[in-house]
C-alpha cells in the first residue's frame, strides 16, 4: 500500500492511514446499526520527539459490536512512559521514571501509526447487545492498561474494562494503574516487610516516591527519602514529611562516609528503591543493612549503577529490577483490579494523594510541553476530555 497503512489502535477498529489525507478512512466492512460518536485522538505515525510527531486528528464513528463497550474518556495522564513510547529508541536522559533499563532505552518499540496514552478513566457511553456487566454511566478504566487512551471515544470489548467507584476525583482514577500500582507491588514483591522495618528510596518527589511514603506509613514502615539538591529543598522536605516521610536528605547531605549515623533511632533499611541510577543509586546502597535488597525501576540520570565488590562479598546485597508492564502481562488481570480498588479506596479515605494538574484536551500542546519539561518543573499533566 506504499505510504497507506492500516491503523488498528483507534477505537479498536481498522482504519486506513494515508499521511496525505487529513483524516483516516474506515476500512470497508459490514457495519451494525449501532455506531460510536466521532472521535478525536492524539496520533503519531513515526517515532521521535512527541512535540514534533504527535498531532490531534478527527476519526469517524466505528461499529459497536455485540460484546463491545463504547467509552467516553474523561481523563488520561501524560506519563514519562507515554513519552518514551513515542520517542521509540531515542529516550531522553531525564525522563525514564517508570521503567528499568540499564541502557535507559525503552525496551518495547511499538508499531506506528498509533494513538498515545496508556491509562485513563472513562464513562460508558453505550454497550453492545451481549454486554451484561456494564451499563451507560458507569466509570471504567482499562485494566490492565492498554494503548490508545489519548482519544475522546474508545470502543473495545467488555473484558478490557474494569468498573470502578465513581466517588473519586477523575485525576486519581485516571492515574491509579501505573505509578501507585508500581509503588504497591514493589513494597510487596521483593522482601517480607514487618511493621517497624525501614525502606530507603531516591526520586522521592515522583508520584511513585510519594506513594511509597504513604503506603509504607499505612503498613507501619519507616521511610528514608533522598531528593536531589535544589533551591527549594526545605519546602520539598516539609511536603514529604507531611505525607509521612520519616527522614528526607538531599544528595549532598549524604556525601559522607557514614550515612547510617544520620538514622538516629531508625533501623537500617532492608529494602531500597532506585529510579535515578548513578551516584543516587549508590546512596541508596549505602543505607541498606546486611543482606538488603535494592529494586531498580528507572534510570532518570541515564548513568550506570556502580556497586563495590565489598557490597556483594561482605554485605551480601541483592540487586533486583521491576517493570510494571511485564508484571501485568503475567496473567495478573484479576489481582490488578483488586489492587486498583484498594488504592482508590485509600484515595477516598484521603490516605493517598499526590500532585497532579488537570489540563483541557484542547490544550494538549501546552500539557505536552510541560510534560517534556519545557516550562520548568510541573506536576504530572492529566488531560481532561
Integer-rounded radius of gyration:
22 Å
Task: State the helical fraction.
Answer: 10-25%
Distance between the termini: 34 Å
CATH topology of the largest domain: Quinone Oxidoreductase, Chain A, domain 1
Given the helix and strand composition, which structural class is it? Answer: alpha/beta
In one word, what is the shape?
elongated
The CATH class of the largest domain turns out to be: Alpha Beta
> What would you call the quaternary organization?
single chain
At CATH level 2, the architecture of the largest domain is Alpha-Beta Complex
Low-confidence stretches: 1-6, 25-31, 90-105
How much strand?
A: 15-25%
What's the average pLDDT?
Answer: 88
Please give the count of helices: 11
Structure notes:
This protein has helices at residues 50-53, 80-87, 170-175, 179-189, 207-218, 233-243, 278-287, 309-313, 324-328, 333-348, 364-371; strands at residues 5-7, 15-17, 25-26, 39-44, 54-59, 68-77, 114-115, 121-127, 139-142, 153-157, 161-164, 198-201, 222-227, 247-250, 271-274, 293-296, 318-321, 356-360, 380-384. The chain is of the alpha/beta class. The protein has 2 domains: 5-93 and 111-177 and 349-384, Quinone Oxidoreductase, Chain A, domain 1 (Alpha-Beta Complex); 191-321, Rossmann fold (3-Layer(aba) Sandwich). Strands 6, 8, 9, 10, 11, 18 and 19 form a 7-stranded mixed β-sheet that branches. Strands 14-13-12-15-16-17 form a 6-stranded parallel β-sheet, sandwiched between helices. β15 (271-274), α7 (278-287) and β16 (293-296) form a beta-alpha-beta unit. α4 packs across α5. The chain starts with a strand and ends with a strand.
